[in-house]
Amino acid sequence: MSIPSDPHSGPSSAPARRKAATIRDVAQAAGVSTATVSKFINGGQRFTREVEERVAQAVRDLGYSSNPMARGMITGRTGNVGIVVLDVRNPHFTSLIRGASRPAAEAGLNLLFADIAEGLAPELPTLQALSRRVDGLIVSARLSDEALAWLVASELPVVYYGGPPSAAACCSVGIDNRGAAAMLGRHLRDLGHRRVRYVGFAGARWSDDRWQGLCEAFEGSAACLARHDVRAATADEGERIASEVLLREAAPDAVVAYNDLLALGLLTQAQALGLSVPRDVSIAGFDNIVYGSYTRPGLTTVDTGSETTGEVAMRQLIAQVRGERAAAPGHEVIAARVVVRGSTAARDVVVR
Amino acid sequence: MSIPSDPHSGPSSAPARRKAATIRDVAQAAGVSTATVSKFINGGQRFTREVEERVAQAVRDLGYSSNPMARGMITGRTGNVGIVVLDVRNPHFTSLIRGASRPAAEAGLNLLFADIAEGLAPELPTLQALSRRVDGLIVSARLSDEALAWLVASELPVVYYGGPPSAAACCSVGIDNRGAAAMLGRHLRDLGHRRVRYVGFAGARWSDDRWQGLCEAFEGSAACLARHDVRAATADEGERIASEVLLREAAPDAVVAYNDLLALGLLTQAQALGLSVPRDVSIAGFDNIVYGSYTRPGLTTVDTGSETTGEVAMRQLIAQVRGERAAAPGHEVIAARVVVRGSTAARDVVVR
DNA sequence: TTGTACGCGTTATCAT
DNA sequence: ATGATAACGCGTACAA
């Protein structure tokens, strides 16, 4: 594909990008007006066979595609949607992205992406930079209050994932945290566990819900539940607090972590400390990240439907952006389920 | 030529968003012309203290920020850069994204993101949709030839990661695959391994380089190297081919996989098949994904500097977009290093 | 130092 | 069925 040198460009030194054909070029080449070209391309309006033929030919010849910015100026839409995740390296969020990716592509929307890096990146400026370049946003419900307030004030179509934020009328997607935790709790209770420790994450409002669900499951039993909050929900943090959680005087016979990353760190470090999992202690987490099945033993967890969450959130957002009736505010609950692997097992009744 | 899922068509009665303040509103409020406002805001030009005061005040009062689309029409730049990954769920790529994220944010560029999903999403349409909305692109060097050719023809600033693509003059970032594999090979050779099997990935050109590096390391020794190519570089695929690779007649005493995901699958399945790792067989991979340290035994791997790669690629792209001299074509080599964990150990000389 | 006026590529409106 | 033209919001020559 050798492009003949442009006689008008002269000895241009700058690596100027060949400027793309405009709708006017197409119109001229096809011998019609720009209005005709525009209507034919996206208005869906029909014309005489011969005109359509000529326009289509010109579009092909010139490799024309409309300029999204010029189009956006008049339509008021960008053709982009944004997704803000708290940590790209957490497989839970990558599954969320994967889930959101497909419906967006199908709707012809591009995905603008931002990583808050769990507080490392400033939330508000990130949101502000994004907001003018997208038609809508998918964000975590656990952004700062400041960021959430700004978002509401901006009147941008938004779908929250994780849980409903404190804000009033909005769209959100997430699991029933309390119910899911209760399911996991009953699993542990039925296995005979009686000294359960919850490693919560202070940064997530729904960490409380999970704690309450756990408590609910053990209500009426003679179990002893305790809670230990951490500031980061990462594997490193799990490793760091392992000894503190696992080796104290009244050692737990089961530990439930806020998420799988924490659980992974706890599991590894427990073994490094000489504990046998699940013989000495059962360990479980939330999210069902895929790497929980590659540890030994495999990690028992609660599947929070990460990918489904992303998909549903994106569908809601698209509906909202299009101004459809289906875009009514409300919280959509994703089904959660307990995934039992080797890291939880029946407590031996015999004192070890 | 009516596109069914066109987001811009249809009887969209979107809820009218409160329209943002324009530069004219600011000019009027400050009692100056739009030119003054524009120059003050981004031209960096100075004005009388009083005028600057009034303009700044008006900007604050109206919460003005320039319309990126209108601005883009004039400047010819979008303020976005794109990154195309082959699989968001592969931690190697999320580290890459994380690495690219920061320099982009620092440069005031938004990140547009696309997931090829290892061939599930069509590459060329994805690229085409992206290309008009970004000032530059970071893409894998192992896109389809068709996609690469189109990219070159588009004259868009592009940085390739992984390795230099077949194309002539371009910017690329990656490790020395052959050298890195040779390092890993020497590690295995020194441990006494003699029957080594390489599980390659047919989809990546540089899988060959890794194979050659391995061979190089065993040159002159009485080792027997064999190669087994797979079509997907995922943990599932690693599990699927484990028995075929590990249990054949002349069973390998060491297996090197194209990447850590394959290695993870192999490791897990090896143990499920009753093999002890590393006693019966050593296993190693590439990328140093973080989850390789949470398996038992930990996974020996080659750190390919995923995050650094993303960071360097983004810096190159920014230089290129800005038209800086530093944006000369060439391949930037990232340092790789072998990370030894429990999955590789010295071969017992005694026949087991 | 400041303002006027034009053009960027597109779509929508109205006229033919 | 097709065309002419006015916006959209901004940057920037050029004029004052």
If you had to describe this structure to a student in words, what would you say it looks like?
2 copies of one chain form a homodimer. In chain A, the strands form 2 sheets. In chain A, strands 2-1-3-4-5-11 form a 6-stranded parallel β-sheet, sandwiched between helices. In chain A, helix 5 links the parallel strand 1 (80-85) and strand 2 (110-115). In chain A, 50% of the residues are buried. Chain A has helices at residues 23-30, 34-43, 49-62, 68-75, 91-106, 123-131, 145-154, 177-190, 206-218, 235-246, 260-272, 306-321, and strands at 80-85, 110-115, 137-140, 158-161, 171-175, 195-201, 224-230, 254-257, 282-286, 300-303, 330-334, 337-339. Chain A is built from 12 helices and 12 strands. In chain A, helix 5 (91-106) packs parallel to helix 12 (306-321). Chain A folds into 3 domains: 20-75, Orthogonal Bundle (434 Repressor (Amino-terminal Domain)), CATH 1.10.260.40; 80-175 and 306-321, Response regulator (Rossmann fold); 177-303, Rossmann fold (3-Layer(aba) Sandwich), CATH 3.40.50.2300. The first copy, chain A, is elongated. Helix content of chain A is 41%, strand content 17%. The interface between A and B is large, with 71 and 67 residues. Chain A binds a DNA duplex (16 and 16 nucleotides) through residues 22-24, 32-36, 38-39, 42-43, 45-48, 51, 66-67, 69-76.
